[in-house]
Amino acid sequence: MQIYDLTQPWDDNCPSWPGYPNAKTYYIKRLKDHKVNAQMLEIPNHCGTHLDGQRHFVTNGIAIGDEPLDKLVTKGVIVDISDRVEDFSVYTKDDLLAQDVEIKKGDALVVHTGYHKFAYNQPDGDEERYFLKHPGPDLEFADWCLEMEFKWLAIDNGSMDHPMNGAIRKHRPDIARLAEKKLGDLDALFPEETYHIMHNKLFPSGMIHAENIGGDIEQLLNQRVLLGCFPWRMIDVESSPCRIVAWPGMG
């Protein structure tokens, strides 16, 4: 049985979500002193491939360690829209439905924009394009996800939301000005009440998502697969680093 790893390789150079502290790994014991190597890991939950839990946006939401495995291991589809998007593109459900692969109700849905190639550890790495300029969905996309009753979602860049429909717009006003030159009035395109719509509208229903995926994803474009997402089993924690794998031919 062949298994494909959709997880972004990680080290402590991996950038966290903008504004969050960066990760650290360091030795607390060394063979020369203690006859054993041991390390300490300090990592924000939103660094590298991770699963945003319901509690990330819902006060008393489900903790990440309480998400059931029969939800996280499920049939799904990897949909490639990379030839339809560029910096700041706003994609729609029609961009996904135009691909030569069946998207079924109740799937786990993985969207491939191609922006994983700009991750920090890639030859074309570009943190600003990856986190600040990546494509994102229009406002109707969230409604379609609810209609399709997807188990969970995943994206190969910094956020499931468009970067101009979240914290980035205020965090980097210079980037927002660039986006506005391409997209027009951002307040009209993404009104304040739709802020982080892919989080705020979907998470209350239990439809959570993984961000910063990558790895072997290009080998499975427009294919149905069995997907497995494995966050740490942590109590009272809102989100978690995770490992995401896919089994082809089982979707």
Secondary structural class: alpha/beta
CATH class category: Alpha Beta
**Largest sheet composition:** 7 strands, mixed, barrel
Can you identify the CATH superfamily? Putative cyclase
How large is the radius of gyration? 18 Å
Q: Kindly state the percentage of residues in helix.
A: 10-25%
How many helices? The count is 9
Task: Name the average pLDDT.
Answer: 98
Give a brief description.
With 251 residues, the protein is α/β, with parallel strands linked by helices. The chain has one domain (4-8, 45-248): Putative cyclase (Glucose Oxidase, domain 1, 3-Layer(bba) Sandwich), CATH 3.50.30.
Describe this structure in words.
This protein is of the alpha/beta class. It has one domain: 3-Layer(bba) Sandwich (Glucose Oxidase, domain 1). Helix content is 21%, strand content 24%. The chain has a seven-stranded mixed barrel with strand order 4-10-9-7-5-11-12. A hairpin with a 7-residue loop joins strand 11 and strand 12 (239-248). The longest helix is centred in the C-terminal third of the chain and has 11 residues, at 173-183. It is globular and about 60 Å long.
